[in-house]
Every structure is written in C-alpha cells, then in structure tokens.
Sequence to fold (153 residues):
Amino acid sequence: MSFDFVEFFYLLLRLIAAFLLSFPVAWEREQSTRTMGLRTFPLVAMASCGYVLVASAVVGSGSEQQARIIQGLMSGIGFIGGGAILKQGGGVRGTATAASIWTTGVIGAAVAYQHYEIAVVVSLINFLTLRLLTPVERKTGKADRPKNESPKE
Fold:
C-alpha cells in the first residue's frame, strides 16, 4: 500500500477545519478567563475529528459501528467536560464550559463526517450563546464570574 498524498491533504484539511471552527468558542472562554481555553477546545475538536476519521477507515461506514464511535466520543468528552465543573459552596461553576467542550466534540465529528454545515452552525450558536447570554445571566446574578472579577455589592 502506497502513501496517498491527496488523501493526506484532505485529511489534514479536515483537521484544520475542526481546529478553526472550534477557535471562536476557545477564544471566548479564554477571554472569560475560564480554566479551559485556547488550547483545550481546538484539541478536543481535532481529536474528535481524528477519532472519527481513524475509526471510519477501520470499521467502514456501517451505521452500528458509526453509532459506537459517536457513543464513545460522547462519553469521553463528557468526562473531560466534567473536569471543568466545580462545586463552590451552594453553587456550581463551569457548566457552560463543560457544555462547550461537548459542542467542540460535535464540531470535530461533524467535520470528519463532512457535515460542515452542522459544524459551522454549532460553532456559531455556541459562541453566540456564550457571548450574548453571559451578560444577561450576570445581570440576574446567576452567571459564573471570571476568576479575576469580584462580586458586585
């Protein structure tokens, strides 16, 4: 079996697309001084894309095998996202970051399956949710505060 440069190029483009489509969410989380940011989100998206690409090459396109791939990704990424959730006193912080980790996994998988429209829409909705709804939550007193922001009195 010989090395296929064209196939390599297309796989590389998908991995780069997964990285780029997760970057707005990563940037927003980094700007909000969250525990996960510029490195974590793109790595999760690229890893999800990579796992789907490898698994698809190994198991083929059977729907049962593909369902197992997605199932494994969902569980694994949920475990990573769980690390972002912290209990503090009577409250919980980090749930939006955990959910965003999950959506970057969806972005990577969608790119691997060549469903770029799904990846773009998920990236956009995730970014807009974080950017537009966080100030609303802060006004109601229910949003997590960045590490460097003290409560308003």
User: Anything to note?
Assistant: The longest helix spans residues 5-31. Strands lie at 86-88, 91-93.
